[in-house]
Amino acid sequence: MTPTYALPQLDGSIFISDGGLETSLVFLDGVDLPSFAAFPLLDQETGRDMLRRYFRPYLDIAASKRVGFVLDTPTWRASSDWGAKLGYGQDRLNQVNKRSVDFARDLRHAAQLPMPTVINGVIGPRGDGYKAENLMAGAAAEDYHRPQVRAFRDAGADMVSAITMTYAQEAIGIARAAAAAGIPVVISFTLETDGRLPSGETLAAAIQAVEVNTSAAPAYYMINCAHPTHIGDALDGLGSLSSRLRGLRANASKLSHEQLDAATELDAGDPAELGHQYRVLRDRIPHLNVLGGCCGTDHRHVDAICNACL
Question: What is the pTM for the complete model shown?
Fold first, then answer.
């Protein structure tokens, strides 16, 4: 039986999130992000100012549309392997993960949104977000991600999310770590242009594996870092599991992960078209209610998504 969580987005009302944090900072603001990691910005006031400016338009959209907001921490790369590349040991990583929750809490307090704002501790893959490589079994993934999960829990995050998961076993490990820590967890898989995970698993098989191996621990599932045109076949195969899918954070571009990885310019697509595509998917899966963006998207895309889906 799926655990009961007191997350406000589970009531079915629209919640939005931000867009592509790292791609916006790199391509639109000209910020240097070694290893595509945004979390070091928390260590300096100029970096924190950049993050405040980045989040402000999204918070303004949530306020004007009177929708809920899932406020992410900028910690997609703040786990031990990636931290080591940037000179962060485990103690320092624990501190920056906790500080990211404090930063999000300050943003929430300053925004004073009329609808609920949920602080979400973001966990990224141990490996590349576009490739399934250096695969771990569930137990190894649980060990690897446990420190970050516990840091978010200890700092008072409302939930954690495993974002851009490329294969099921890593998602299983994160879900187990969150269940053991007593914090709600969301699992978000990424898909290739054929609608499968980079590992070759179908979305249905990956969700089913997590459900079976974690006693259905996740609060819900999402898809991120894939364009809406890439996920139709994946949705067709979900069957009854479609009731567990609540969120979508799509890329602006229709390009494949391989093409995006090689790109030197941002492909921002068409915000209005993306909004329409979200509406089509919501007509198909009405409980798809947590909506945001991923690579190449910014506040214009999230505003268009919000307008199309409300």
Answer: 0.96
